[in-house]
Amino acid sequence: MGLMWWTMALMASVTVLLAARWLIVRRRSEFVASWHEPSVEALRDGRHFGRLLVRTTGHGDTVHLLLHGLGATGLTWGAGVETLAERGVLFIPDLLGWGGSIDMDRESFTLDEHMTALDEALEEAGLEDRRLVIGGHSMGAMLALRYAARHVSRVGRVVTWGAPMYADIDETIQELGWMPRLFAMDARPAQLACRLMCAQRGAAARMATISRPDVPSALAAASVEHTWASYRGSLRSLVIDNDWREPLSVLGGAGVSVELQWGTEDKIGSPADVESWARNHHSIKVVRVPGADHHLPFVAAPSAVVAALLADSGVDG
Q1: What is the pTM of this model?
Q2: How many CA within 13 A on the CB side of residue 120?
Q3: Is beta strand 131-137 parallel, antiparallel or unpaired with respect to 155-161?
């Protein structure tokens, strides 16, 4: 009886300590404190254009296209970017295979398929000939550069945050972290874990919310809205096998204004390598933001994100 009492007391103590730690991490999270759900209904719920769910609002000759990162959805951009709709169309898709664009049957998620899905969505929305200002975070940064190079003649500006840009593929895989490495290498445990998540997505969403106190609950829950194929395929095609030098050469050669931002506390990407390579391209600028981490565009003042997108874009800010 005494042993049972001590066991129960120990379990209760551990539970209290874990709960306390969760609350402390959450209270200290700049991401949780800074992120707010969009106040505009169209940016909360979205609608489908082609194969993509898109959160869009605004009117004008310029489309502000924002692309989210790995394990995220377009909702990640939150309320901070709403004022871009005053300068044109704000167009925020859930990328192919993610969030509201999840496809349980699709097995292929190549770079070209991601870009074609964006083309189809913009065309169905009647925006295929509009000028583009493109922003991208993390994995979405890599897609943003490629998509801008594909449509270089109508791109006014590109801004990226926390792009996983490294000198070579081996370094990319090594620096991504243990979980992306498991998925990238087609590891059996990662595949089984992902398929279990798909079978129990509600429970997985609750677990994600519990395990990531540093992330807003709505975003943590949305992070499970993908499949094994979309996670692995997007990671490989948009990050690991995507040589950033190629689109930057196209954009730099055309004189397109490109700003590549990293927080000084961000562990993703190698801005020094990028800066060294880009020295001869005067329209490409590397910016380091003191004290910021990988959540840079979501914890900075909203005006800073909007200002970065509008600067040198030709859109009146």
Answers
A1: 0.89
A2: 14
A3: parallel
* Residue 255 vs residue 15, higher pLDDT: 255
What would the pLDDT profile of 268-279 be if each residue is shown by its tens digit? Answer: 999 999 999 999
- Side by side, the strands of the sheet bearing 62-67 are 47-49, 52-57, 89-93, 62-67, 131-137, 155-161, 257-263, 284-289
- Residues 256 and 283 sit within 8 Å (Cβ to Cβ): yes
The secondary structure of residue 244, as a DSSP letter, is T
Going by C-alpha positions, the residue among 31, 122, 18 that lies closest to residue 76 is 31
Closest by CA to 53, choosing from 128, 125, 138, is 125
Residue 73 token pair: 């959805």
> Is residue 190 over pLDDT 80?
no
Amino acid identity for residue 256 in this structure: V
For each of the domains in the chain, give its residue range(s) and CATH number, in order of start: 35-310 (3.40.50.1820)
Q: How far is CA 192 from the centre of its chain?
A: 24
Residues 288 and 263: beta-carbon distance below 8 Å: yes
- For residue 162 the two structure tokens come to 């926390």
Instruction: Quickly tell me which residue has 């609608």 as its tokens.
Output: 47
> Strand pairing partners for 257?
157
**Contact residues for 192 (Cβ-Cβ < 8 A; gap 6+):** none
Q: What pLDDT digit, counting tens, does each position of 15-27 carry? A: 667 667 767 878 8
